[in-house]
């Protein structure tokens, strides 16, 4: 069987990246009301940038190795922004944090701009530190979600990122990697994995939302309220922030003598099941922590009682 033309392969990759952009745009709607919205918007921008690059390759606009490498470095730099955005996803500084994220993208892409403007025809001179730093950022983003139900989705996205940045690994010859015979197929595989990962994440988010709407069994009334919102935060923001929420909640619980502890898998309660005197204060404490990352409407969509939207003080 003769190999597929490079133009067709790049068009397939362009379509896959466009579909990934559509799914991530849907993800913006799914996470609305939370501080994960900027990360979802960065994801849309990264997918669109990849689609633009693949489309330009299919049109033959990136036949020059230097221009192709510069475009790829810009795409890779943008792809690292979503994970970085989540690391600052706490109110009220989450908005200003996006300036830091944008600055990171500019700094990482600076060698591409330098090559195009000051050394036309030359490859981007990517420093060894940057070549090591970019895979490290991918690893950080992967570790933030690998312990959650999004493990398969984030693994697909991380592998896609590593495939796209393979030409900038330490010791890699950028021009040889970008222009190799398998380059188009590898890029198409990366775009396909990206689409699969985004689709998995969106499908899991919808499934979780349906589960919150149906409700479920819980060991105690306070667990029935806290667990859906806490687990939704875990799947939306990753492990880093929910472990911090759990730590702060447990500190308050220990100081006030509540028979409960918040773990990565949810709230665990003990003591006399008939003693509900501490429930109201525990719910208030958790809600105050959750409001640093999500709005009242978001909490209501993820299992928090509707009464709290209209009268927060009733907890």
What keywords describe this structure?
single chain, 2 domains, 315 residues, mainly alpha, two-stranded antiparallel ribbon
What does this structure look like?
The protein has 315 residues and is an all-alpha fold. Helix 1 runs antiparallel to helix 2 (37-59), helix 6 packs antiparallel against helix 7 (151-164) and helix 10 (221-237) packs parallel to helix 12. The chain has a two-stranded antiparallel sheet with strand order 1-2. The chain has two domains: 6-209; 217-314. The model is unreliable at 214-218 and 307-315 (pLDDT under 50). The protein contains 14 helices and two strands. The longest helix has 32 residues, at 183-214. The protein has helices spanning 6-30, 37-59, 65-79, 81-86, 94-118, 128-145, 151-164, 174-178, 183-214, 221-237, 239-256, 279-290, 296-301, 307-310; strands spanning 260-263, 266-269. It is elongated, with a radius of gyration of 23 Å. A hairpin with a 2-residue loop joins strand 1 and strand 2 (266-269).
Spell out the blueprint of helices and strands:
Layout: H1 6-30, H2 37-59, H3 65-79, H4 81-86, H5 94-118, H6 128-145, H7 151-164, H8 174-178, H9 183-214, H10 221-237, H11 239-256, E1 260-263, E2 266-269, H12 279-290, H13 296-301, H14 307-310
Antiparallel strand pairs: 1-2
């Amino acid at each position: 069987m003769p190999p597929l033309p490079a133009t067709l392969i790049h068009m397939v990759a362009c379509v896959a990246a466009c579909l990934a952009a559509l799914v991530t745009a849907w993800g913006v709607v799914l996470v609305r009301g939370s501080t994960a919205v900027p990360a979802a918007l960065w994801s849309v921008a990264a997918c669109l940038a990849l689609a633009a690059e693949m489309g330009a390759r299919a049109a033959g606009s990136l036949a020059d190795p230097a221009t192709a490498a510069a475009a790829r470095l810009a795409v890779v730099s943008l792809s690292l922004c979503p994970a970085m955005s989540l690391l600052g996803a706490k109110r009220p500084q989450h908005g200003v944090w996006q300036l830091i994220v944008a600055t990171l993208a500019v700094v990482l892409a600076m060698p591409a701009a330098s090559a195009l403007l000051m050394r036309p025809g030359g490859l981007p001179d990517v420093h060894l530190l940057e070549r090591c730093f970019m895979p490290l950022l991918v690893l950080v983003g992967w570790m933030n979600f690998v312990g959650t139900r999004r493990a398969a989705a984030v693994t697909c996205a991380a592998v896609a990122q590593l495939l796209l940045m393979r030409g900038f690994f330490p010791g890699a010859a950028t021009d040889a990697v970008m222009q190799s015979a398998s380059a188009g197929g590898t890029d198409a595989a990366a775009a396909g994995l990206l689409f699969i990962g985004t689709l998995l994440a969106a499908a899991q988010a919808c499934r979780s939302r349906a589960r919150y709407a149906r409700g479920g069994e819980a060991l105690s009334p306070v667990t029935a309220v806290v667990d859906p919102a806490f687990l939704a935060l875990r799947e939306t923001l990753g492990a880093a922030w929910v472990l911090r929420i759990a730590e702060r909640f447990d500190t308050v619980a220990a100081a006030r003598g509540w028979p409960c502890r918040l773990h990565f898998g949810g709230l665990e309660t003990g003591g006399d099941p008939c003693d509900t005197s501490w429930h109201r204060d525990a719910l208030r404490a958790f809600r105050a922590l959750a409001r640093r990352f999500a709005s009242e409407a978001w909490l209501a969509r993820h299992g928090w009682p509707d009464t709290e939207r209209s009268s927060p003080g009733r907890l």
